[in-house]
């Protein structure tokens, strides 16, 4: 199972969608479209994105004690 980390390449804004796409085996474009579509629904999507941006380590700076 791959470690969840924001990739160094292929980022747009924070790299959260690219990290989730790699983890779930889909394309980054698909994950971005799904995120944008989810913004049409009520909920804390932007807050979740910001939290993941802060909490997910960058690919070059992955922590070993996860």
Task: Give the SSE map.
Blueprint lengths: L15 H9 L3 H11 L6 H11 L11
Helix pairs in contact: 1-2
Structure description:
By secondary structure, the protein is an all-alpha fold. The chain has a domain of 43 residues. Helix content is 47%, strand content 0%. It is built from three helices and no strands. The longest helix is centred in the middle third of the chain and has 11 residues. The two termini are 13 Å apart. The model has no long low-confidence stretch (mean pLDDT 86).
What is this structure, in a nutshell?
The chain has helices at residues 16-24, 28-38, 45-55. It is an all-alpha fold and 66 residues long.
Question: What summary fits the major beta sheet?
Answer: none
Rg from alpha-carbon coordinates: 12 Å
Which regions are unreliable across 5 or more consecutive residues at pLDDT < 50?
none
Total count of helical runs of at least 4 residues? 3
Report the count of strand segments.
Answer: 0
Cα separation of the termini: 13 Å
Q: Averaging pLDDT over every residue, what do you get?
A: 86
Q: Which structural category fits the helices and strands?
A: mainly alpha
Q: Beta fraction of the residues?
A: under 5%
**Percent of residues in helices:** 40-55%
- Shape field: globular
SSE run: HHH
